Fold each of these.
Amino acid sequence: MVPLRMPPDWNSPIPAWSSTFADAVEQVSLCIIRSGQDWSSTEGLQRREYLERMEPVLEAGMAFLRDRGQEVNCHAGRYMREIGRDGAGTDRSLGPAYFRTMADLEGWAETHPTHLAIFKTFLGIAPKYGANLQLRPWHEVSLLPAGNQFGEHANCAAGTGLLGGLASG
Ligand code: HEM
């Protein structure tokens, strides 16, 4: 078992990986999405629209995937803010989420109120700017077949993240 260290010490070596976690992950295929948001180039109204209208619905969607993801076959999800080496927050965030299949991911995105709120808010803002939209959102999706992957669960409390989701799924 890897000892839990709080707060994390970024300069220390990564501890040995947990074979328990690797064994669990190797049993299943995964559909992984990283939703990225870069608002570092936004100014004025576009910055306010992102921070006051887009960001709250995105946070709510990621909170659903984190707290109730099992309802839509999402094993784990977490809303993350990028930080620099100095530990200060940047104007970029990530929403990684680990779904059972692509159909589960698409089902959540196309029908669930939390992503529909994200989608509709975005479409209520972005089209009027066309090519001048300063927000840079992106989605990156990977399909990992069972047996072609392993994961490391280092410095995390037991039952958190993907290991917790797979254990309860
Ligand atoms: C600010 C954040 C987000 C914005 C602006 C956004 C916006 C959009 C838009 C506009 C589409 C439709 C694209 C098209 O039909 O061409 C879309 C689709 C999609 N989004 Fe998001 N989204 C965000 C966050 C997320 C998150 C956090 C996830 C998953 C964790 C996600 C998963 C998806 C998926 C899977 C689709 C494709 C659905 C399909 O099959 O058509 N999105 N999103």
Amino acid sequence: MQHGTIFDIKQFAVHDGPGIRTTVFLKGCTLSCQWCHNPEGISPSLDLFFNSYLCMKCNTCFNLCPNEAIIDDSKITILRELCDKCMLCANDCPTEALQKSGRSINSTELMEEILKSTIYYDFSEGGVTFSGGEPLLQSSFLKEVLEKCKKEGIHTTLDTSGYSSLKILKSVIDYIDLFLFDLKLINERLHKEFTGVPNKQIIENLRFITQTRSNDVIIRIPIIPGITSTDQNIEDILTLLSSLNMVKEVNLLPFHNVSEKYDRLGMEYKLDHVRAPSDEEMAKVKERFEEKGFKVK
Ligand code: SF4
Ligand code: SF4
């Protein structure tokens, strides 16, 4: 039986595909998009969250840490470079100021979680969505769970960056009913600068999926002022999408600042200077897609 690493299971999700869904967040992603709102999904291993406002300075963690990675000064400080994520501190923190993100789960255990909401899937034409992180990074585990979902007649959605080998994509494609395919930047240099990886494989994979499954793809575009929402990038995305078999729908996802989450993980947030797009900016981008005949949400 396959084991995977997940960092969350969200029941009653309504924004991750049709109907009422269970969204499973798998850990690990090759990309490191500067705007990522699930930074705890990037590392394939466990993460340690520290919510300083919950800390009552009991010093339990300081006394437990085998690596001297916790400093007890005016406030608790974690020296991330010394932390090996043993999680002794998180296991015993009385206020949950320290929390572990990530856990191992096997496909049977995950199916038990997914099956809890079957009645809601039936009633709302919902199902299960695999998100992350990048679910394709745990393809053997993902495939086993997808097979089980299909046996149960559950609608499956994959929320993906599209960054994987074609071989991996082909190994799961027949078990996926709907793709939420993220498209960020078309210019390869900018894609590499803001996500850490080139986009050639992503675009090739999108072409491959839309060749046979054009009605089962929703394109998701994060709208980040000055980065993804530039006139040139929107034009480039429109040119690409127009060259493909027609995709079903385009979803525009407005940027919002998640610096606090990065702070809690001890990660650097590079987009603190970026503001959320205004309603007018969102409407302008929406109009450009609608003019070309796309259904836009
Ligand atoms: S164990 Fe928790 S509450 Fe106690 S000092 Fe450490 S972080 Fe704060
Ligand atoms: S998880 Fe890190 S900070 Fe916590 S006890 Fe282990 S080494 Fe120390």
